[in-house]
Amino acid sequence: MRRALITGITGQDGRYLAELLHSQGYEVFGLLKGQNNPRSDMVQAELPFVEFVAADLQDLSSLVAALEQVQPDEVYNLGAISFVALSFKQAELTANVTGLGVLRLLEAIRMVGGSVNNPIRFYQASSSEMFGKVRESPQVETTPFYPRSPYGCAKVFGHDITVNYRDSYGLYACSGILFNHESPRRGIEFVTRKVTNAVARIKLGLQETLVLGDMDPRRDWGFAGDYVKAMWLMLQQDEPDDYVVATGHTHSVRDFVNAAFCHVGLDDWEGFVTQDPRFFRPAEVDLLVGDATKAHEKLGWKPEVDFEQLVAMMVENDLQIEAAKAGLKVP
Ligand code: GDP
Description:
alpha/beta, Rossmann fold, UDP-galactose 4-epimerase, domain 1, GDP-mannose 4,6-dehydratase
């Protein structure tokens, strides 16, 4: 039985990836940080097959111990401070976890290593935020980086150190440059889930307004359930490499808001939405659109859920959740 260790097991991607690996017959281990991690009970109930291992991306010796204990075939590094807005407020923490955390995990892998015939394979969750103020469109694996936030800067370090350890020490290390990917499990702090949750609550009469920041930025939004398949495929190849994972389609925040309101029949939605400077960022990423041709050709990967389906899936899920909480029927 193959064994996989996932950092960031309590996040959106960690949970989809755990389900995928479990369905492929893996033994799945999840790295859990902190004392009384508030999400552990929820994740254990949702994914009873996952075995938790206590360790922290800020603590090298805990990572070495985790690898020695689990003896994984594959390590997926999805753990990070992942919210761009928070990274501006806690830049040093972001650099430490999202950036240096990658270095610590790579060092731990070098120390523990796996066997000569079966070295540990490593996946790094890189991000389209590394492209930031984009130098070309669409963005591909060779597009130069120009990060626009402490999060983006930390991800550039994580990406570069992954490539460097592959080049320097021959590690089987891959970096997946994933564009924004969403789902009903997306955290409420991200704009997509914030919007679908608010739209559901407005439709149910539980909320009156949705307060947003800049609605002009454009993102290449895909479905997280599709994207974790690309992560796994990267680690099944003969040679490690880096891949862009994206849909190739870009929409503005306003497009997303429009699609979500229209899905519940509130086509005339402008009156429900206001803007507040507190949700604007010190520096913005205006446009992201990826070209995943390499992933299509080498991994045989392509997205299955399109933009409209993604919005519908998220709104429907939030309608169910919010109606159940309020003891209402979904209209
Ligand atoms: P990001 O692409 O990783 O930063 O993902 P987010 O979902 O946090 O943000 C996507 C875009 O939505 C960014 O350009 C934000 O500036 C924009 N945005 C506009 N209003 C909001 C808001 O209220 N919350 C969030 N999270 N983003 C917003």
